[in-house]
Amino acid sequence: MSSKIIQKGAEAEIDLIDGKIVKNRIKKSYRISELDEKIRKLRTRSEAKILEKAANIIPVPKIISSDEKSKKIVMEFIDGEKLSEHLNNFSLEKQREICRKVGENIAKIHDKNIIHGDLTTSNMIYVRDSKKNSGLNNKLKTGFSVSTFSGRVGGNKRAAASENFQIFFIDFGLGFVSHRFEDMAVDLHLLKEALEAKHFQHWEILFDEVLKGYKSCAKYEKVLTQFKKVEKRGRYKEQY
Question: How far apart are alpha carbons 55 and 51 in whole angstroms?
Fold first, then answer.
């Protein structure tokens, strides 16, 4: 059996085991044992349910198995490029196209009341279209890849603007279901902050493209109104 730790965060460890991704929620020594057990079990169950629901809407990792008892979710992997590490390498025209697609994906999950909870380019993967990875459900053979976490492009050349592609959303560990426009607005706000921090050269142009894609959301006007309020609160906090 081949096994490799490819990412270790505050909440979970992600391993590549025999060509599959295994997400294992880590024990927290500062929490009461019984409470920690309950929290990790509930979060494992919640993430699996959200992933299964989202899989019928946008490209997301396909679950192979989920075990609340062991606090593990097993997913297939794909070969892709993490946007946080590769978006800046594309032409501006391609970056704009990618961000419009990101906005369309957000619109689709928000229309179904799915909140990602951690919308950053670190949780998005650019995947070139192929017969294997096109469409949804059975056509979406998805997950993570070693290149997703190492930043390796795998020898692929910079994509042309006309190239077909998909944007996979990953890591729904902080995700939840909500009808509140506030929660949807915060999703957008998090992405805006990520673009400003990581892709500062063109962040305003790119976020404008996200909003263009997001216009397909049936709740666009109400979410955008709430988004402006969230932005004002953020600017107020920065002053003090």
Answer: 6
Quickly state the pLDDT bin for 136 (edges 50, 70, 90). very low
End-to-end, the C-alpha distance of the chain in Å comes to: 54
What is the pTM (predicted TM-score) of this model? 0.84
Measured at the alpha carbon of residue 51, what is the angle toward residues 84 and 13, in degrees to the nearest 5?
Answer: 60
Q: Pseudo-torsion of CA 127, 95, 212, 144, nearest 10°? A: 30
Instruction: Say how far apart CA 167 and CA 177 lie, in whole Å.
Output: 21
Sign of torsion over alpha carbons 61, 66, 68, 72: negative
CATH 1.10.510.10 fits 82-129+160-238, yes or no: yes
**118 in active site:** yes
Q: Where are the domains of the chain?
A: 82-129+160-238
Catalytic site residue from 15, 79, 118, 183 = 118
- For CA atoms 147, 186, 23, 57, the dihedral sign is negative
Q: Could you give the CA distance from residue 236 to residue 240 in angstroms, rounded to a whole number? A: 7
DSSP-based three-state secondary structure for 89: helix
Cβ neighbors of 133 (< 8 A, separation 6 or more) are: 59, 78, 127, 139, 140, 141, 142, 166
Residue 19 tokens read as: 């060509």
49-93 residue pLDDT tens: 999 999 999 999 999 999 999 999 999 887 799 999 999 999 999
> Taking a C-beta distance cutoff of 8 angstroms, is the pair 72, 149 a contact?
no
